[in-house]
């Protein structure tokens, strides 16, 4: 893990997001980034001092945007916005989720397009580096107008209010936690309240971490499927390359088939029955594993593309343009992320379902090719893995329930101004549960398949053999019934931390979908984090006001006085 990550909006990668979120990597800001932020802030300062009101700079928010707020009340305006929006409830979300959210909001601030002062950005980075984590609650985002309550909980801590945990994990009043770290709370100025809450950062952070986890899990399930096929006396012939890309050119399917074929290469178990006539064709859960695992890989590829593009975005409303104008927009809508998050939950649940079907075959004496019932040592006296499979089935069932899409369940809010929302935060929260369940399901398949292979007379393949050896370092092989929960937990932990994939790749490399290059994509023509030599802080104030909809804030065409920029909070 790197000692420090340079928070460059154009170069931040998936791996760096994960390093900061999960491994407490430090974050640094370059002088170039700070200078860019200050340059864009000049536009906000110029508009704040203008006579004509500009939405989000010198007006109220949402339905109150028609009111021109005098300079002496604007600090209170920012405080009121953050306090009122920090309205989440439920259990605190995981520390890694909050750290990813804060890093990604800081990344958008670092583009300059949010128009904050450099000290605001620096404070976000200081909190991350000090190991201070705002307490963010489970519920409070509809995935539109940004992840409002979660981001507001973080902004509240930046102000020295709310609740945060220190590096010791103990929660306390934010002002005390900040003081202990030597961090001075920020008094927010014009536009900064909106800039801190109008982002898709929670959704994006959870998507990036899920993609990291799924890359490991989909590689692991290629190997666990191969090990199950080996233990069940299945054939490796269906994984031959000429049966995949040449006939059905899906990249994910080809990668999964190649991994399975590699995992079974030189298997003594497979060779021992190669010329037998005991089966004409294997069951779908064995024969079609590359098609299902591969389709999941292709879904991960699609979601990676979505996340890469969002990682180069500057999400805020209003946003500072390169000519100094401040313009309203709808980029805070989380639909692109919500759809990808829902898609991943569906394919992860499907992969888990197929994994469970292979485990089920190993339990059934009529289908497991002369293994004992439930892989028991003394069937009848011993129950073997009967209830381990029950546990696996329960988690698959839960994964299926959580695969129901959240993004089709929009609930209008904010007096019908926000009349369609993405529910992307909810999609991300349930995806985390599905991914966690998939890891457990695959772990139980490994546990059962390693026992099945141990019960065969011939030797496993070098790859599967290396994985079995890694499992056997902490988990015994076949024998009389014993307390299974700790052994299952040990195996699942080795799946989650990548140990079993590493054991397989200690023999030979496997194919991957999400690589270290994930997050290095840049859009044609450059990203929002530009240092435009034509940039002018003053801009055209009339054009800026018009683009922000503030003419309508003063006098709406129908005489109502409503703001065309919208009634919704922080919108």
TrEMBL record:
Residues 560-571 have a biased composition (Polar residues). Pfam families: Lyase_aromatic (PF00221). Its main location: cytoplasm. It is found in: Cytoplasm. Signal peptide: none annotated. One of its GO terms (biological process) is L-histidine catabolic process to glutamate and formate. Residues 542-571 are annotated as: Disordered. Keywords: Histidine metabolism, Lyase. It catalyses: L-histidine = trans-urocanate + NH4(+). Residues 543-555 have a biased composition (Low complexity). This is Histidine ammonia-lyase. One of its GO terms (molecular function) is histidine ammonia-lyase activity. CDD domains: PAL-HAL. Belongs to the PAL/histidase family. One of its GO terms (cellular component) is cytoplasm. Its EC number is 4.3.1.3. Pathway: Amino-acid degradation; L-histidine degradation into L-glutamate; N-formimidoyl-L-glutamate from L-histidine: step 1/3. It comes from Brevibacterium sandarakinum.
